[in-house]
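Lay summary. Proteins are chains of building blocks that fold into shapes, and those shapes determine what they do. In this project we predict the shape from the chain. Here is one chain we studied, written as its sequence of building blocks.
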Amino acid sequence: MNPPTQKVQGTEGGGAQSGCLRCSLGAVVDGWTQSEIPWCRLCYLLPMRLACLTLILVGVLVVPVAAQEEAEVASSGYRVGAGDVLRVEAYNHDEISGNFAVEVAGEISFPMLGRVEVAGQTTSEIANRLEALLERDYYVDVQLQVEVEAYHSKPVTVLGEVSRPGTYYLEGKTSLHKILAEAGGLKSSAGQFVELRRVQEVDGAELPFVRTYGTASILKGEAGRDIILQQGDVISVSAKEQFFITGEVAKPGQYDLTPGMTLMQAISHAGGQGKFASQTVEVHRGGNGDKEIMTFDVSHIRKGKETDPVINAGDVLIIRRRFF
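And here is the predicted shape, written in a compact code that computers can read:
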């Protein structure tokens, strides 16, 4: 569809003058209707030329920045260590391509070069080093691509209530959330906390570092994604803590213990006391010769005469039948 034009009064010859609505440079043409007159060439071509010029300028400015950011990402990538396996691909040179294990000393045994130290370097740094060594004595121009075929240099340990506890290896920046996923995720028996332990060096001394995260927050994705693991970390997923209640309650059995749960809350979890229940409750705690039996009067607790005690994991609560 042609752009809009306007029709103005005719010239001396009586013809109608139609011109561009954007400027006064429109052509004078007799007999054309408003919808038939195109824009003048200047108004039609100038916006497209300006748009092209803008794209060129953006490309000139953005490409170097993108390249710089990509280089920064590459330079801050995974650092190879002993136990890793590297895959080296040489363009048009199959004789120097293959898999190379990083030995305990941090070196690989490479064709024609012998032992080359690679520990602590990124794959791009290793490629550049190998190319320089090969071109110094053997090749005019060689192009190498180096990748980590297998990660085995930075172990972490996952223990507790996960589907597959064991040793796992960091692949670059690895989060707590990712390692737990690799371990098969949390089991239904997982408790309320995930503990992260590591040893940190402070002023030349090795000090323990312990941090605890809530499993509920990890399952919701609110925690764990921004926690970057380090070599040697130990992750422990706690098991559910439970207590047992029996006797004159509506629903005797075993229940999950929440932090700070009290005796009255535990009884409420079991559906409350039965109509023949005694007001005296026994709490059996401990075992293996170190057992303790405590008694509490729930009627005094309700009236505020006694403190509502906190229940511990493994406690057995016994509510006996009252005697008339």
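What the prediction tells us: The chain has four domains: 1-74, 85-150, 155-239, 242-321.
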